[in-house]
Design goal:
Suppressor of fused protein (SUFU); SUFU-like_domain; alpha+beta
């Protein structure tokens, strides 16, 4: 399945080159017991000052419902996750957290998709002055187009992983993901800002 991973890398390079990022991404590889390595690419900021972290490896195999007795090795949804930050300061541990998320389908049988809430139960990364308040992510659609694969394989989707606080995660569980997104819009919250305040939907 290395051809899928190679195609994902090439697709990402084209996307970010078109967005004005001409430098090669930094790469980190994370391996978990019993699973294949997950690579996390860090694409330098373009004119908008946004840094993108993207997993490569989640889409190597289709995601399957853990209740299925036999998983289809070809058919099924495939995804990679994208986390964007309007910040260039060090984010120690972020690559590992994103790799944990990308490995969840293989390790935990999780199917990643828009509106999914994934809780890490701990700060996702450390800044120079301490841990961030974000302990979960809310998945959504990203601006990176799907990567078509040879049928019958489904295309690879690129899902945004928006870091959220424990308070925001609780609101997602109670009110739903759209309530939180509406609160962000109402409060003019920049979800790409790692120093942002938490929103509290009404």
């Amino acid at each position: 399945m290395t051809e899928i991973i190679d195609a994902v890398r090439a697709h990402l390079r084209r996307h970010f080159t078109d967005a004005g990022v001409s430098t090669d991404p930094d790469a980190a590889s994370v391996t978990f017991l019993g699973s294949e390595p997950i690579e996390v690419l860090r694409f330098a900021p373009a004119a908008d000052g946004v840094v993108h972290y993207v997993s490569v490896g989640c889409s190597k195999h289709p995601m399957a419902d853990p209740t299925e007795i036999v998983a289809d090795p070809v058919r099924g949804p495939r995804a990679e996750v994208v986390l964007a930050l309007r910040s260039t300061e060090p984010a120690t541990g972020l690559a590992r957290s994103l790799a944990v998320l990308a490995a969840a389908p293989a390790v935990d049988g999780m199917v990643l998709g828009p509106d999914a809430l994934v809780d890490f139960s701990a700060p996702m990364w450390q800044r120079e002055h301490g841990p961030v308040p974000f302990t979960a992510v809310l998945l959504g659609e990203s601006e990176i187009t799907e990567l078509a694969l040879e049928p019958p394989r489904e295309p690879v989707r690129f899902l945004t992983a928006t870091p959220i606080t424990a308070t925001e995660a609780a609101w997602v569980r109670i009110k739903g993901p759209e309530a939180l997104r509406q609160a962000w819009r109402d409060d003019h919250v920049d979800v790409l800002d790692p120093n942002r305040r938490a929103s509290q939907p009404s």
